[in-house]
Amino acid sequence: MSDAPPPIRVLVCDDQALVRTGYVTIFSAQPDMEVVGEAENGHEAVQAAGRLRPDVVVMDIRMPLLGGIQATRQLAGPDAEAPPKVLVVTTFNVDAYVYDALRAGASGFLLKDAPPAELVNGVRTVARGEALLAPAVTRHLIGHFAEHLRPADTSRSAREDVVRALTPRELEVLQQIAEGLSNAEIAAKLFITPETVKTYVSRILSKLGLRDRVQAVVLAYRIGLAPPTG
User: Fold this and answer.
1) N or C, which end of the chain has less CB nearby within 10 Å?
2) Residue 229 in domain
3) Is Transferase among this UniProt entry's keywords (predicted)?
4) How far apart are CA 172 and CA 79, in angstroms?
């Protein structure tokens, strides 16, 4: 009797048939993945997810009828029941809505020119419940779209609530996360072990009621805790 875990159930959502076909081919070739459905717009993705219960939805942003951001909010937002993980795959240079997608509940994002191995790893990463927020891409995103990342919640109390909830060291780690640093980079910068950083990250998420690292970055920018960019 095999002890292998069940395959990751993947729903592919993109308005371009050729792109969907490419994704399906890539994921179907993986022994630990099963493509359970396709959708060509966000409306179809929401309906399909309700029927098929995928573990991960690979989501485009710019689509007709219902875009990826709105679909992500319906699938994985705060009001969603048993939400799937949403991995946004976007064209960075033309799409300024990645930040909005992360706020809507996406677990991470990749660029459309990412190699197949990176795309497969991205699905596995979010399926494990981890945020896919590549440090280099995060820094690029923050620098390129700084105007979209300035504080949306300027109330002093929101920031003070976070400051009160966390220890000084946890606040320091949160700021490093918001800069796009990986655990290893944070460990080197703060002269602690990666395992200790992982513990701090878990505590931060728990204390602030955040689902993952992506939400931590979003919160840090919303309350102006992250350092200015540029």
Assistant:
1) N
2) no
3) no
4) 31
| Same-domain status, 138 and 161 | no
Tally of domains within the chain: 2
d(C-alpha 164, C-alpha 208), whole Å: 11
DSSP code string of 1-17:
---PPPPEEEEEE-S-H
71 CB contacts (<8 Å, ≥6 apart)? Answer: 13, 41, 42, 43, 45, 46, 59, 63
Q: Cβ(56)–Cβ(127) under 8 Å? A: yes
pLDDT at 146: 47
Q: What is the pLDDT of residue 185?
A: 85
pTM of the shown model: 0.68
Q: How far apart are CA 117 and CA 140, in angstroms?
A: 21
Contacts of 68 (CB under 8 A, 6+ apart): 13, 42, 59, 60, 61, 62, 88, 90, 101
- Residue-range definition of the domain harbouring residue 59: 8-142
Do residues 214 and 102 lie in contact, with contact meaning Cβ atoms separated by under 8 Å? yes
Query: What pLDDT is recorded for position 132?
Result: 66
Question: Which residue type occupies 190?
Answer: L
Q: How far apart are CA 160 and CA 219, in angstroms?
A: 13
Please, is 154 exposed, middle or buried when counting C-beta atoms within 10 Å of its C-beta (0-12, 13-18, 19+)? exposed
Q: Domain check: are 12 and 101 in the same one?
A: yes
Q: Are residues 130 and 167 in the same domain?
A: no
CATH number for 157 = 1.10.10.10
Average pLDDT taken over every residue of the chain: 82
